[in-house]
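Researcher: Good morning. I'm working through a list of sequences from a screen, and I'd like to move beyond sequence-only analysis. For each chain I'm collecting a predicted structure so we can compare shapes side by side. This is the next one on the list. No need for commentary yet; just the structure.
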Amino acid sequence: MAGFNSIEALKAEILKRMRNALTTAEDDIYGVYRQYNDGFYNEYSPFLYERTYQLRDNLDMSGIEPLANGYAANVYYHNDWSYKSQSGELTTGEIVNLIMHGEHDQHDVRVWDDATSELIGEGKGYQILKDALNSAGL
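Model: Good morning. Structure tokens for this chain:
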């Protein structure tokens, strides 16, 4: 880092680097969820119904949101997953976390839960953020 004439200038540089690091981390974390999401769709092709792709098309990132002393970013599904299955009993969200396709036990991917477990339970999310901060010089 270059020399700084004030605490404010140092803080501004740190916040700029944090923002860049968080952008990288958000992209990488989104990639983990996308991998599980795509895995759900790639492992089974329905023949009794036509897919809506509601889950696939609704994975999103918030982008960087400023806070008082830093930033926040979110990876999320922007729809409420309330679309009911053909039987009308289960929502899209319930189906994918019950490891089901079309209400039939066909696979072993709990889309949101497995990705979250990898990121939080196995510490991958922490490592992604740490690596991004280190790459930004923090």
